[in-house]
Amino acid sequence: MTTLDKSFVTNGVWKEDIFKGKVVFVTGGAGTICRVQVEAMVLLGADAVIVGRNVDKTIKAAKEIEELRPGAKVLGVGNVDVRDVQSIAKAVQESVEKLGRIDFVIAGAAGNFLSDFNHLSSNAFKSVVSIDLLGSFNTIKACFDQLRKNKGAIIFISATLHYYGVPFQSHVGAAKAGVDALSNALAVELGPLGIRVNVIAPGAIDGTEGFSRLAPPGTTPMHEKVPVQRLGQTKDIAEATVYLFSPAASYVTGTIQVVDGGLWHVGNFMGSLYPSVVKQQNEDPEVKL
Ligand code: HXC
Q1: Which of the following is catalytic: 95, 115, 136, 158?
Q2: Who contacts 67 (Cβ-Cβ below 8 Å, separation ≥6)?
């Protein structure tokens, strides 16, 4: 897994300590993309809280991130399921007790798998919508008091696959479209309180769980399809995160920052597999309810 180091500050474009005294709260913070977002914030002076379902994974990641900057405090809270608002509220309470405040929130926890409509059960659809959409709502709900007090900022992690129809992703596309709509509404509602709300929509990011779940075997190497001719790196998402949370973005709210090298403009990743792969799945006479 690619992680960041001190060179992000020494050789990077951002100023050291721009987030000094601030705290970022991140769901899914032990995962591939969100972890590197946290690393960037910590390297630039912030303290952080990462929450997740898996206790060991979350605590281990928090300890490793903490080592990136002397004096950094990174709290890992496991056993938190974003589908349960009370479990996030408890984590928020612990965070404020231990770190004093929350200024920034990244709603990053997500669930995904490829499934055609015929084999996607109602419960499977609900699971992904509950993690991605309801989970994003719950996260902001639980952090709202802190965000209001500290005139904070929010980043939702979305996707680009609902900009057009992507086979086998109806559940994720519906959930992420909801996340974008939630972000737009909250930008308008919370703007007068001093809270900024934006979305980052990552494209094909190399080495991530999402990418390994989605890249269909036997297709053209993905980087050849990307207009900038390379796969995304987690660092690309970290850079966008720093910008959106930094004072440089103080007039930026209600936006969707697509970080995909231009990929969504050239169509979905199923390419030459379409429509045969779809027909095949739909021939199964047994419809999973
Ligand atoms: C069809 C599936 C399935 C699959 C699970 N289900 N996997 N159906 N194909 N491959 C169905 C199950 O059969 C069940 O339905 C329902 O989903 C719930 O499954 P559970 O295992 O009980 O759910 P749960 O433990 O809550 O797990 C949630 C999950 C799981 C989303 C299903 O995959 C998960 O926890 N994922 C978290 C990690 C993750 O996905 N990370 C990737 C994020 S990347 P039935 O009917 O049998 O009860 C990402 C990128 C998005 O999100 C954007 C990409 C561009």
Answers
A1: 158
A2: none
